[in-house]
Write a structure and sequence with these properties.
By secondary structure, the chain is an alpha/beta fold. It is about 45% helix and about 15% strand. It contains 13 helices and 9 strands. Strands 1, 2, 3, 4, 5, 6, 7, 8 and 9 form a 9-stranded mixed β-sheet that branches. Strand 1, helix 1 (about 15-25) and strand 2 (about 35-40) form a beta-alpha-beta unit. The chain is globular.
Length: about 325
């Protein structure tokens, strides 16, 4: 019976934390642990955590100075004792019976390393949110080895780790941690590094959690309305991923897939920039990303759509 550790980073979320914790303590498995990492909150979040810890001994509190989301997740993983790691953001919530369903799925899987489950949204229903509906809900699929399709084609993979469960042994064997210097897109980088080191993947259709669409002051809220900041953040993610993939030799094996992903990940963001910035960032794609990591040699292998995106960057340049 695998034990599940839920990592919940907490930073100044007093308005949302109780709803999240209510969804945790209502879970019907007695051996789960909910590791709430208080990342230097200055509001009443710490008091709320203390009250819930008194109500349910499955809640464990880790207090630390503020270091950001990645730092809090790493601290939670280090403090965990379960065989499986699940991430839950402190403004989101589990569905009733989510962890018992996940545990049953783990028990009946073929030695899965990563289990990916579906989510819905609130307060707006997911049916009204086309991108989230496509991204957060998907058909079941199984893989017994890594292929680029797992990471780049399956809708349940990037960009979010909070709808994925990880075998803790995989995290220990791979020594992958969240990059604490990356303030945006840490989920993407984490998955880009951990997925190629896993063997068995299970995508399940069960809707196990609900994602809060927008919260004032969240990381996503802070970058959503700044196109240049969005492009810079995306480039930073790609560069850090390219560095890891180059070091691990994965670009040699999957260079065309990486290039196609990098183009698709950035093209629409760059196109909406003002003309001078668009020209600058298009040139930067070639000079800072494609050239240093030898990606140009894969452009003939990325298909018609990929070549169209490559040519679009050339025109903007």
């Amino acid at each position: 019976m695998p034990r599940i550790s839920v990592i919940i980073p907490v930073y100044n979320v007093e308005a949302y934390l109780a709803e999240c914790l209510d969804s945790c303590i209502s879970q019907d498995i007695p051996d789960a642990e909910f590791i709430c990492v208080n990342d230097g909150s200055s509001d009443s979040s710490a008091d709320i955590l203390a009250k819930y810890a008194e109500r349910d001994n499955r809640i464990r509190i880790v207090n630390k100075p503020n270091g950001g989301l990645s730092s809090a997740r790493n601290a939670g993983i280090a403090a965990s004792s379960g065989e499986w790691i699940v991430f839950l953001d402190s403004d989101d919530k589990f569905k009733p019976g989510a962890l018992s369903t996940l545990k049953k799925r783990i028990e009946t899987s073929h030695e899965a390393d990563i289990m990916i489950y579906c989510a819905d949204t609130f307060p707006e229903p997911i049916e009204n949110e086309g991108w989230y509906l496509k991204t957060l809900q998907f058909p079941a699929a199984s893989y017994t080895s890594f292929s680029p399709k797992v990471l780049f084609a399956e809708r349940g993979s990037m960009p979010y780790v909070w709808r994925q469960a990880y075998r803790k042994g995989l995290l220990e064997e791979s020594k992958v941690t969240f990059d604490e210097d990356l303030k945006y897109g840490e989920d993407v980088l984490y998955q880009m590094e951990i997925f190629p080191q896993a063997s068995v993947f299970e995508f399940i259709e069960d809707v196990l959690m609900s994602y809060r669409l927008k919260r004032e002051g969240s990381i996503m809220d802070n970058v959503r309305d700044d196109p240049l900041k969005t492009v810079n953040n995306h480039y930073e993610m790609i560069l850090r991923a390219a560095k890891v993939w180059k070091e691990k030799g994965w670009i040699d094996s999957y260079g065309a897939d990486f290039l196609y992903w990098a183009l698709k990940f950035t093209i629409l963001k760059v196109r909406v920039l003002p003309s001078d910035l668009r020209k600058q960032k298009a040139a930067e794609f070639f000079d800072a990303i494609a050239a240093p990591y030898g990606l140009e040699k894969y452009k003939r292998k990325i298909g018609l759509k990929g070549r169209m995106m490559w040519n679009a960057f050339l025109i903007m340049k």
